[in-house]
Every structure is written in structure tokens, then in C-alpha cells.
Sequence to fold (647 residues):
Amino acid sequence: MVDARLRPALELRDVGVSYGSDSSVPALSGVTTPRLVCGEVVAVIGPNGAGKSTLFRRIAGLLRGAGEVIVSGGSEGSRKRPPCYLPQDTTVTAVLTVYESVLLARKQDGQGGWAATDEDLAAVDGALDDLGIGDLAFRNLAELSGGQRQLVSIAQTLVREPKILLLDEPTSALDLYRQVEVLDLLKHLAQERGICILLAVHDLNQALRVADRVMVLAGGRLVSVGDPREVITPGLLEEVYGVRARVEPGGAGTAPYVVVEGSSRHSLGQVASGRAHLRAAE
Amino acid sequence: MASPALAAVRTSRTAPSTLTKRAAYRALTRRKRLMLIGLAAVLVGSFLVDLTTGAARYAIVDVVRALVAPDTVPAALQVVIWEIRLPIALMAVVVGASLAVAGAQMQTILNNPLASPFTLGISAAASFGAALALVLGIAIVPLAAEVMVPLNAFIAAAGAALLIHALSQRRGVSTETVVLLGIALVFTFNALLSLLQFVASEQALGAVVFWTMGSLTKATWPKLWIAMAVLCICLPLFMRRAWTLTALRLGEDKAASFGIDVRRLRLETMLLVSLLAAVPVSFVGTIGFVGLVGPHVARMLIGEDQRFFLPASALAGAALLSASSVVSKTLIPGLTFPISIVTALVGVPFFFSLILSTNRRWRSW
Fold:
């Protein structure tokens, strides 16, 4: 019997996206990945504007474009359970409690009809408990801090029992303690439930700590993909981010970590031109 | 099961237990149901009082008897209740509910608390359409003369609603821009209406002014059946989509990430809203504030889970217009004020009190 966690979950073939009428400057182009499997956490890293959010929106089916997104072995049109996408912006003005908003996410698949079933409520309870936000259950969404809203948004994706989870900077508003806690939880859930999680993050040390695989985007192209320890190197950091850095190997039971030593270019303009050069080279 | 580190962290928290959360949610939904029953009771009370008031005052007992056993009451009372007051009182209920549901859905799909048929120019467009018929005798669609005024009003209102929708679908257009366009439509149609009033004959001018102020006294049984049919078609269609419409309030991106076809949902909702807003306006004239205040009252009482929010909006709007109908007849005995004046006089202070209220739960827009 094949281990459920090794089942293929997602594969991208020459995926691209162009905004507006100008297709000569695509936001994303030629992204081809190896087959990503259930149970793995894939960190998607890259500088601002690299195309991380565009890639996620393309995979989630919110954007059309070139190439093929293959989900769970089926073609794009025939997939039964689409990837769950958590957008970056979690601002919300709805007059709903946290509990209602998570239940709402659960009911979008049209199962259980109009009323909330015991199964629905159990799923909501589980998602809130997993994220440790049960004490917020009956607070109004608009009263929450940015970090609390991010946790609620993650609960809204988990309650849908996804097989593929696309989280766009899910910890950007969280304090360090919460970042570690949430990323550890996601790693645990990926392994326990066989979820393939793609995680856009800016913190490279978090990527090195939790990711099984890392994808590096720059200028709308996939620069590198593979084991984080092999991909995140001083050379890549200088090339993609324009920073001088070294990667310390870490110790027993601790992940490698990046130590930034300084900018290798003198201005943001030079960083931008470096990225343009990178794109042209591809 | 969580990782040991997480489990250790969680045990230190004081989160409600799973059973407590579930029980609390069930209690919350029970409270919402009770709130709906309370609103319905207010509406029934207001409706009955509406039937008792008018040129002749009747006791509620007599009115109830005339409703449930018409043969047991004097013929005069039977005629007054069934032929005169009942269509008007029911029209107040149906129009109030329709405008409030239309306002609630406009606020939902445009993600803006100021959206309503009145504030986005749909009512103004209807007034202009009606005035075209009243002043110049122009029918947008040539049909029988007796339906020319309401038909003109409906077509103009639906056109304005579709224009707003078309703009809202353009790339990069924010909800604020849509509201600004609505305000521009209000000014445009009001200016055109003023122009028509300027050139109108004295008789036509009186008719236009009376129409733009709104009047339930134009209600008849056939008009009532049509307005009721529109409400009975639209409301269940909205209720069927309660979960998806609520999801829209979490943001367009998130709703789309749930697999909702946001553009299609918005278009279908806007079409239903234009029908819901235009038909009552075409029968009873322009009635402001109900479509704006009704949903806010419902939101304050019940939140935005549309399974409860929609019926609450309908009940709140119906009760508000029914109460306004009572006030319009009792403010000065023997004189019935145009209903729109009363809804503004009642609605605006009420709306101010809502905005300034200390209850912040619903004021998150």
C-alpha cells in the first residue's frame, strides 16, 4: 500500500500569468515544478513583487493564464477539491463572530445543506482548538487584531479539510512566538492529515526551519526549487535579494539559519535592476 | 492532535471547551430566532394599529374581527378595512420589506454601508421615469396608459441599477467609486426631474410632486399582488444563497477562494435587487431611508449571517414603513402626510442614534 503522504498533490507545468493587455511583461511565466506530494510543506520565497501571490492565485483558480495546474493527478477542470487559498489581506468589516465566520467557510462546499450540522460544528470546534483561538470564538471579527484575524483566516481554511493549502504570508502579522507556534502547527497538520501546504514567507529562517522543500521566485520566474538546505545559499541570497549573507549550519536538532551581513548593492534601484538582469538571463 | 509544544501552550489557555462553544453557538442561533420572532411581533402590532387608524378610528378587537370573520362586523367597517385600509397597510409591509431587502443586498454586494436604492439613485431614476409619463406623456415602452407611470419608473430604475452594476464590474473600480457614481445619478436624475417640473403644467406638477413624495394611498389589490409576488420570488432566491452572500462580506478574494463565482453572484443579485427596488417604487412613489435604515437595524440586532440577516432586514423594513404609515395618519388628525416625509423624519434621527450608539458590535464598516 502506498503511503498516503507520498501521493502526488500538485504539479505546475509552464504556468504563467499576464495582467492587463500587456502580455510582454508577464507577472509570472514558465513556472514548472516537480510533483509536490501530500504531507509536505513547501516554502515559496522571493523578494516583493516576485510573483508569489500571483502564483497562489493562479493555482487557486482565481487567475487565468498559460500552462497547466495539475491537482491530485486530475486535470485543472476536473478536480474535485480545489486548493484552499488564504489571501494576504485578512481585513474584514462583516458583523460576524469568529465562530460564525469559520462555520461559514465550512458551509461553502454545499454539504449538509442550509443548517449547521453536528459534523460542521465539530469541524469548527476542531479548527479553533487546533489554532488555540477557542477563547475568541464569540468575539466579533472587526474587534480582532491583525494577528488574531490571520489565525481566524487559517482556521477558515483548515475547517474546509483541504488537501492543498495555499497560505500567502500567513504569519506576517503575528509575533515571533505565534509565528513559531502556527508554523509548527501547520507542519504537524501537513504530516498528520496529508495536506500539501504551500507557504509564502519572507522569513528565510522560518522557511529553513519548517519547509520540506523551497521554491524561489524572482521576477515572475522560478529560480530554484529543492531542499531548503541546498537551495538557500549565500550565492542565491545575493543574486535574488541583493544581500550579503552567510548560512550557518545549525546544531543538533536545530535548523540552519541565515545571518545577514549587509546589502551587496547600494540602492533599491540597483536591487531592482539586478532582478531585471536575472529575468533577462532566464 | 496537536504537537506536544502546542499542547503545552494550549493547556495554559482558558479557551471554552468544545461542548461549551457548540452550546454557545446554539444559544446564539436561538437568540437570533427569538429576535426574529420579536421583530415579527412588532410588525404585527404596527400592522394592526395601522388598520385601526384613519379618518375613523376603530378598536383593535373590531379590526381583528373584521379580518378573521368579516361577516360578523358592520358592512361599513368591513368595506373600510378590506377595500381601503388593508391594501394600504399590506402595501406598507411589502414595500418596506422589499426596500430593506434590496438595501441589505446592495450593501452586501457593494460592500458599502451607504448603499440603498435611495442613496444610489435608483429611486431618483424611478421618479424621473414616472415624471416623463406624468409631464410629457412619454412612455419608454408604449403600453396601456394606466401602467405608463409605474412601467416608466420601473424601466428607469432598472436601468440605473444595471448601470451601477456595469460600473462595479470594471477592473480597478472600488466600492467607493460605485457609491460616488450613485450619488452622481441622484443629482443627475433630480436635476432632470426639476427640469420637468419647471416645464410642467400646474396639474402635472401637482401629480409629480405627490408621486416623488411617495404615497401608500395609491395601493390597490392588483398592485399589491404584483409587489408581493416579486418579494416572494426574490427573498427565497436570496435565502438559498445565504451562505455565499455572507461569504462575500469576508472580502472578494476570500469569497473567490471559497470557490464562489463572485462576478456572477454580484450580477444575479443586482438584477434581483433592481426588480425588488423598482417595482414598489413604481407603485407608491419614492420612499427613502427604509432601504438604508432597515438593514442597519437588522445588522445591529442580529449580525450578518444572511440566514437571519435577510428575514430580519425584511421584518425591520416592513415594521418601519408600517409604523411610518401610522405616524403619517396620526401626526395631524384628519390629514395623511406623504409617507416619504415621515420615513425621513423617523428614519434620520433613528439612524443618527444608531451611528452614535455605544454598541460598537455592528459598527465595523
In short: Confidence is low (pLDDT under 50) at residues 1-14 of chain B. Residues 79 and 85 of chain B are 9 Å apart (CA to CA). Chain B has 15 helices and no strands. Chain B touches chain A at residues 1-3, 5-6, 9-10, 13-18, 21-22, 24-25, 28-29, 111, 242-244, 246-247, 249-251, 253-254, 256-260, 299, 303-305, 307, 360-362, 364-365 (CB under 8 Å).
